[in-house]
Amino acid sequence: MRRNILHAGVANLKYEIREIVGAGNEIRALGQEMTWENIGDPVAKGEAPPEWIRDIVAGLLDIPSSWAYCETRGVPHVREFLANEVNRRNGVKVTADDVLFFNGLGDAVAKVYGFLSREARILGPSPAYSTHSSAEAAHSGYSHVTYELDPYNGWMPDLDDIRNKVKYNDSIAGILLLSPDNPTGAVYPRDVLEEIAAIAREHDIFIIADEIYANIVYDGRGRLTMSEWIGDVPGIAMRGISKEYPWPGARCGWLEVLNKGHDRTFGKYVDSLIAAKRLEVSSTTLPQMSIPLVMGDPRYPGHLAARERMFAERAEEIAEAFAGCEHVIVNKPRGAFYYTVMFKPGVLNGDQVLHIENPKVLATVERMVAGVEPDKRFVYYLMGATGIVVVPLTGFQCLHHGFRGTLLEANDAKRAWILETLRESIEAYVASGAHTPAIAGTAAAR
């Protein structure tokens, strides 16, 4: 074309969680049966929402207003309900006007970063969740700026790293955190969260907390939301129903804006998000209308508790499956439904392989691994040899090598097979290297 029409940040739009599907589909077409462990969709992995929740959603179809546009911010009585839920906690108070609905948190993330000044950067965690890291990098045109999560300390944020990067990089306007975290399954204790808030307060910046997994916590400390620890710092909490009901296909998420009136610039920024929503008219109506009916139902606390127990049991399975594996660090997940397996430094090299019987699959995998990161090489060989699809850790804006899996497989026997096969594949892959270096690093705390 006569003019360059590409956005400056287009090269930063990476989503390894979905991109790995292309490689998986190519291998599947050659006859390999696939087991998709790459994406956090509980329904696709066999967990059906309870019948009583499905009955509530079905009943909304008979209400004509569920088929109509709603107000730009969202359905008024739903926003009032959610504001009351925030205000029941011991923390920052909000009104219904502080709740803003989007078509899923992917839509919210795009708006939150897209309407920042291009020079304003958001400091996020590494490993990063790709939706956030790609959107932040795309808005600025530069690589996402990150702070470290420490695999030798349960994937906790490195507070000194956060403090120094905020102090010495005045382009940083906000800090992003995910707790419970994706991809690590870590849950941050109150003292860590309050220290992050203190850093933000000292340097006059705001905080974004992705809390989509806030009600999936099984670390023994209980649930803790942003309004309870942020104090007087301006912030945005991101929430949704996709992981809780679960109903990922609803595409229904919302922002809870905290302390909007404490900073004039922050307030104007939030107003710009509302103005952007007006251009879309509204977000989806029916899923919003389900929220007070489902979350206000006396069965909902029991539903959340049962799912937390289920994932806690599966987290124990993760710890047991990788116990004693000297090649990797695996911190037992404490929340959400993911776990990260990190290869210790020096374990991986370019000579390692897994046995693949199908010659066409083998040829395809050998083509795919040319020039890729060492953990991605393992992931491709794993797909070819076993059909298990996981996401390489370097796909999460991370320098550590490893992969992310899920706790979502509903079939107990298949879940046990997945974990057993992963452990065996790691052992076989490392042993296959002609010149495998000595193993470095320390054992993970579990």
Condensed summary:
By secondary structure, this protein is α/β, with parallel strands linked by helices.
Structure description:
This protein is α/β, with parallel strands linked by helices and 446 residues long. Helices cover 39% and strands 14% of the residues. It has helices spanning 16-28, 51-60, 76-87, 104-114, 130-140, 159-168, 190-203, 264-280, 285-295, 300-322, 359-368, 374-386, 412-432, and strands at 35-36, 99-102, 121-126, 146-150, 156-157, 172-178, 206-210, 235-240, 253-258, 328-330, 338-343, 388-389, 391-392, 402-406. The strands form 3 sheets. The chain has an 8-stranded mixed β-sheet with strand order 2-9-8-7-6-3-4-5, sandwiched between helices. Helix 2 crosses helix 9 (285-295).
